[in-house]
Amino acid sequence: MGTLLSGRWNRWIVLVAVWMLAAGGLPAVKTAHLTGTFEVDDFFRFLHKFGFQKTEKHSQKDTEWDTFGYIYGNITSRVNLTVPVTLAVLDKRSFLEYYANRNDYDRDVACQRMFEKLDKIVYSRACNPHAEADYLRRIPCEKGKLCVDEDTRENVVPGSQFTFVISDPNVPRFWYVSMVACYQNVSTCQWHHYDYRKFHTDPPSIDYDITLVNGNPNRQTLSLFNPLLFHFSFDQQNTLE
């Protein structure tokens, strides 16, 4: 009896979703949508932990078979920073040591320790051009333009300044989003604390608007088989099925 009711309920959800799409769209669903302000003098801000689903082997970007995860949005400031600070999107293994090193009293040392191991695996056009891990963005980004680490408009979700594409063919995993007032000197490749007192009278603030989703946000209407799960972290998806 329970299985029969569950089957009827799932069919009803799909029928309602299809009808609402035809009528003009789905209702708002719970999303990982992050907005706020990062004060540079706070040094570190943890933003969110999100579970991305396992990437299917047949997954292809920008098709109905797209099962990649996406993190995208806009990060700007009303003040020009002398050098950009850092947005980091890390898996659990990378995040734990990075996070543990944030509390060193000497913040220059904290920055160096936080990024010491990441430097070996994370792509940097100036300092590690042969690496493949795409974990960092220099922020803030100039209003109306892509972030400096985005070199191809086609790879960025429309209306956004940056996009991370999360791919893991083995298992679903949590990813951790944070900001830190550290910058990499592109001449020496050393990390330093952005001490605003050297550049500004008052601490600058950085405004962010970030979305995290399972599945390509440009292909949402193709997810008719389960439209209510599109924006959920994988651990939340399990509670709905």
From TrEMBL:
Keyword Transmembrane helix: yes
Matching InterPro entries: GPR180/TMEM145
Annotated TM spans: 12-29
Highest taxon, organism lineage: Eukaryota
Keywords in alphabetical order: Membrane, Transmembrane, Transmembrane helix
Protein name as catalogued: Uncharacterized protein
Organismal lineage: Eukaryota, Metazoa, Ecdysozoa, Arthropoda, Hexapoda
